[in-house]
Amino acid sequence: MPLADPKQQALLEAGEILPLMEDFYTIQGEGYHTGKAAYFIRLGGCDVGCHWCDVKESWDASLHPLTPIGEIVANAASHQAKAVVITGGEPLIYNLEKLCALLHANGIKIFLETSGSWPMSGVFDWVCVSPKKFKKPLPQILEKADELKVIVFNASDFQWAEQHAAHVKQGCKLFLQPEWSRSQQLMPEIVAYVKAHPAWMVSLQTHKYMHIP
Q1: Across all residues in the chain, what is the average pLDDT?
Q2: Domain limits of the chain?
Q3: What fold does the segment set 17-210 form as a domain?
Q4: Model confidence, pTM
């Protein structure tokens, strides 16, 4: 994300400021931590470009204000649940070392949601890798995954999911999640697959059923 102002560019590269699309307190809706209260930090900027993405407004980082990490952390720390989900966009585009250090200094656990297509920066309590065909995950990120969450858009995605499951560490939680617009069509296939391959679990976007962010 090149900036015209060299001072701002230096702050961005150091992770002192980040393009914040939105932050809000809600219930985690999908994956391993479904049902838990958490503060979401959604960073702008993504070069993966999934055609079915439901937050395409996050792609262009220049549309979102560069926000000091101290302000971001203060907002997160003001809520009851000391858990933060860092998501995007693709959050690993940025240097997250200082943001993570400041969150941890405030007693906050950090859950990362990433496509795995950029190198790791920052220290996290939980890493969810959701690999995308449009820009494949790095092997070193797959190895760090505590959770592998594969979005199923068509039948070929089951084999693709297995290819990535072969590269995660022992004990990594494996989830198959239907793409929302095709969930009714895909759910019978996902249920049948999980019954035949019980290492996998079903993830649902429960926040959409609850009509919350």
Answers
A1: 94
A2: 17-210
A3: TIM Barrel (3.20.20)
A4: 0.94
